[in-house]
Amino acid sequence: MQNRKVRVAVNGYGVIGSRVADAVARQSDMELVGVADVDYDYRIRVAAERGYPIYASLPDKRGEMQAAGLPVAGTLEELLSKVDIVVDATPKGVGAKNKPIYEKAGVKAIFQGGEKHELTGFSFCAQVNYEKGLGRDWARVVSCNTTALCRIMHTLHSRGWVKRARAVLMRRGTDPWESERNGMINTVIPETKVPSHQGPDAQTVVEGLDITTLAAAGPYNLSHIHFAIVETTRPVSTDELRQALLEAPRIAFVRAGDGLVALNSVIELMRDLERPRHDMWEVAVWEESLASDNTDIYLTFQVDNESIAIPENVDCIRCLTGLERDPMRSIHQTDVSLGVTKNFLPKTIEMPTVAPSIPEAVRKAVEEHISEGYKGAEEPVPTSFR
Q1: What is the DSSP secondary structure assignment for residue 290, as one 8-state letter?
Q2: Residue 351: pLDDT above 80?
Q3: Is the predicted pLDDT of residue 381 greater than 80, yes or no?
Q4: CATH assignment of 6-142+309-337, among 3.40.50.720, 3.90.1600.10, 3.30.70.60, 3.40.50.150
Q5: Is 144 a catalytic residue?
Q6: Of 125, 144, 150, 319, which residue is the catalytic one?
Q7: Which of 31, 111, 160, 241 could pair with 95 as two cysteines, CB 3.0-4.6 Å apart?
């Protein structure tokens, strides 16, 4: 493990970039050197409020941003000269155009799921293929839906249970922040291409996975929902399925019997827990929906499109830079810093709060590392990050 902090830049300060920046700022082994953007609306102004150094992604935007009152520290090229790695969170297609800039600057780069797999040749999900990313210069963190599929399907596939997987994805119609632009009402729009792109995308991460996905978009903007049917290689009991999900990182159960009956109620729980931006980094599986028979297992789960891939970006930074070679150590360190959990309501619902597959020695070492990183901080750590 390196002795000094890894220096990180975030290019694009929107839905994903702002969350990645906050998450990086919470890591004791990373330094957020700055964020870059081309706009000067309320979103990038939040970066100024947080004290993040701001840079202009395009040189000709620097003057406009400064004229609008933003404290611009320099250009993207100047920011890249100060960092080891950049997380590109720009809109779909822009990352591919930015790659030559990163190559010229000699920095490693992480792209988001809106870019094609071919851009990097390596698509990343922390619990699946972390070790294969060590030493690489480029990686692509897969999209929100694909991240959820990879977490769930890898849990089953790694046990040799998956013969064929089929999933139906109901996506939100639009992101909350831009609902006024293209919001849907009184309709559902099916994707007519089969499979939808999430299935083949998951196959770039989970090798040998037989999966087909269908997708549609609905008139709501609070996350996605998946319905999965997995034909198994042998009969798998519901208890076996439940235990496998309990042991997997970043998968948590919710229960309709607790009033968590819909997408909105789960997001409301995140609000009540005072999660930053009501983010849910975990895949939320409805425990009552777990079912099995002699040939198949059945699951229903919720995916927070705005936040689920944020922990993956943090782990990917450690992976590419070699900051941590052990995937479970990185996953747990990230999870402790953000507040990722196995149980949303541990004081009243009895359930393991940490995956049993994480060794006690690793857990203690990571927790000590995290607490050491917080010592001497100018501000106390918010309870929502503990």
Answers
A1: -
A2: no
A3: no
A4: 3.40.50.720
A5: yes
A6: 144
A7: 111
